[in-house]
């Protein structure tokens, strides 16, 4: 929006939710401001495979769950263990459902559960009989809202399709036999506190390749199917080869082991999502294939990376910032796991003023014999569970290189104070308050009286010289608009409190 024409008027509520700038919902007009994606800081692995014991990979499609009764976080994940070849495709790993715990979500330990024998001992953290436990616990959510302790945990079980289930302890489950959710090998599951429902975002095949479908439920028994909500398109297909070529041509990166120059489709491999300040933020994983592996291994070599999307109803999704990569593959250094695939474990979590993003980091896509021998030792530890962190509200900012203006939609203050999440350490932000209809300044709440914001803070309180209670002044004026004057700064969000 690069002119001063006002968007159709709609009143927004900055009291209940912070107003972010993922879309134009709170914006009437903007000049000289562009949206800028902010990638999270990669903290590295927080849980790695025990390669000395024969564990070669870790993955999860659940995020840590807080157990208020025990005072620690619980995390269900899959450990990939080397084994003798089995099955139609002579598979050489088996994935066991395991548990980790942590008091801070950063340092994790593997408790001695003592339930199932593995490698001659029951001293392990395995939750499901290894004879039939491969990826049995696909998603686990602890639900402290449910008054029934037998339903404290909600889950979707099984790797081929999903079965809803309840549990009192997250270990022993009662399956809802008459309920099935069709899904292939990728999906996500979370509680939606905006619509008081549980959400499954599952992967199914379509003419666009692997695509994301939506199903919702209030009780885990009766599900409503909403159809396809996200799929790849021509822009994704156009992005595929430049992304593959980037890692092929750069010697600092790990090239896919097979690049056959076929014109493959990009596909939406999966999408995790979260509720955030009245809207939904999605993290579609885009699969960019590079070459087809013949049987028995099949599939493709390539790269998987996470992008950003948003929605206000779960059904219509907008891809953000020209589909830039949000969490991408990293250069090969013999230490990082993020060299071929980055996929979120599930919904990111707000911890104070920090968003924690737990994700699967995989060194390789493609089997050992396809790779150069110098990489073979790293197949003893191919994937880990990693953490990335982002400042609160920090997905996207409105950015001004020089100077820009933002005029908001109308809103009501009712005595509250105005706060900004902004980085103006190298610039300046001033705010004026206007009548919603006339756009005339209200009293002394002008740009000239606005105390300049010149620092980086997650909660700047906006003030005007000579005005002791600006919220009271605004409350007496009915609906108002804000005009932000932004110079060489990042504006992430505003709200009233």
What top-tier CATH class of the largest domain fits best?
Mainly Beta
Beta-strand portion reads: 35-45%
Structural class: mainly beta
Give me the CATH fold name of the largest domain. Tachylectin-2, Chain A
Helix content: under 10%
Distance between the termini: 28 Å
The description of the largest β-sheet is: 7 strands, antiparallel
How many E strands? 29
Count of individual domains: 2
Rough outline = globular
Superfamily (CATH H level) name of the largest domain: Glycosyl hydrolase domain, family 43
Topology:
Blueprint: E1 27-31, E2 34-37, E3 41-47, E4 55-59, E5 65-67, E6 72-86, E7 91-102, E8 137-142, E9 153-157, E10 163-167, E11 173-175, E12 187-192, E13 197-206, E14 209-217, E15 223-230, H1 234-249, E16 267-276, E17 279-292, E18 300-306, E19 309-311, E20 317-319, E21 341-344, E22 349-351, E23 354-362, E24 383-391, E25 396-408, E26 418-423, E27 428-435, E28 456-461, H2 470-475, E29 480-496
Antiparallel strand pairs: 1-25, 2-25, 3-24, 4-6, 5-6, 6-7, 8-9, 9-10, 10-11, 12-13, 13-14, 14-15, 16-17, 17-18, 17-19, 19-20, 21-23, 22-23, 23-24, 25-29, 26-28, 26-29, 27-29
């Amino acid at each position: 929006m690069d002119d001063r024409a006002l968007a159709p008027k709609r009143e927004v509520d900055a009291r209940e939710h912070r107003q972010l700038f993922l879309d134009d919902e709170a914006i009437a007009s903007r000049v000289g401001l562009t949206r800028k994606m902010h990638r999270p800081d990669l903290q590295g692995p927080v849980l790695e495979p025990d390669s000395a014991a024969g564990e070669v990979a870790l993955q999860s499609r659940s995020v840590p769950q807080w157990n208020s009764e025990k005072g620690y976080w619980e995390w269900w994940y899959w450990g990939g263990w080397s084994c003798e070849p089995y099955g139609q495709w002579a598979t050489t790993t088996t994935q066991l459902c395991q548990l980790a715990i942590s008091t801070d979500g950063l340092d994790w330990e593997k408790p001695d559960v003592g339930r199932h024998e593995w490698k001659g001992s029951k001293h392990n953290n395995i939750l499901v009989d290894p004879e039939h436990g491969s990826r049995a616990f696909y998603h686990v959510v602890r639900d402290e809202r449910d008054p029934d302790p037998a339903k404290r945990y909600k889950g979707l079980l099984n790797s081929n399709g999903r079965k809803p289930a309840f549990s009192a302890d997250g270990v022993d489950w009662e399956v809802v036999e008459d309920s099935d959710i069709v899904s292939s090998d990728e999906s996500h599951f979370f509680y939606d506190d905006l619509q008081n429902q549980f959400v499954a975002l599952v992967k199914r095949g379509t003419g666009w390749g692997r695509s994301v479908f939506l199903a919702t439920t209030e009780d885990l028994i009766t599900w409503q199917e909403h159809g396809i909500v996200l799929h790849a398109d021509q822009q994704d297909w156009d992005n595929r080869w430049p992304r593959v070529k980037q890692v092929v041509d750069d010697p600092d990166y790990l090239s896919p082991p097979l690049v056959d120059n076929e014109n493959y489709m990009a596909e939406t491999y999966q999408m995790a999502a979260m509720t955030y300040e009245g809207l939904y933020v999605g993290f579609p994983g885009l699969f960019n294939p590079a070459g087809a592996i013949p049987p028995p291994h099949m599939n493709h070599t390539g790269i998987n990376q996470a992008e950003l999307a948003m929605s206000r109803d779960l059904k219509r999704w907008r891809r953000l910032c020209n589909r830039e990569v949000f969490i991408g593959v990293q250069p090969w250094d013999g230490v990082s796991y993020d060299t071929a695939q980055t996929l979120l474990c599930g919904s990111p979590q707000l911890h104070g003023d920090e968003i924690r993003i737990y994700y699967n980091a995989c060194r390789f896509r493609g089997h050992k014999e396809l790779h150069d021998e110098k990489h073979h030792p790293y197949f003893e530890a191919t994937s880990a569970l990693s953490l990335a962190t982002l400042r609160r509200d920090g997905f996207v900012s409105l950015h001004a290189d020089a100077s820009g203006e933002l005029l908001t939609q109308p809103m009501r203050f009712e005595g509250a104070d105005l706060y900004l999440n902004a980085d103006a350490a190298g610039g300046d932000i001033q705010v004026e308050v206007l009548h919603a209809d006339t756009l005339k300044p209200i009293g002394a709440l002008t740009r000239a009286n606005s105390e300049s914001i010149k620092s980086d803070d997650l909660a700047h309180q906006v003030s005007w010289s000579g005005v002791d209670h600006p919220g009271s002044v605004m409350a007496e004026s009915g609906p108002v608009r804000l005009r932000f004057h932004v110079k060489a700064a990042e504006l992430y969000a505003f709200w009233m409190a």
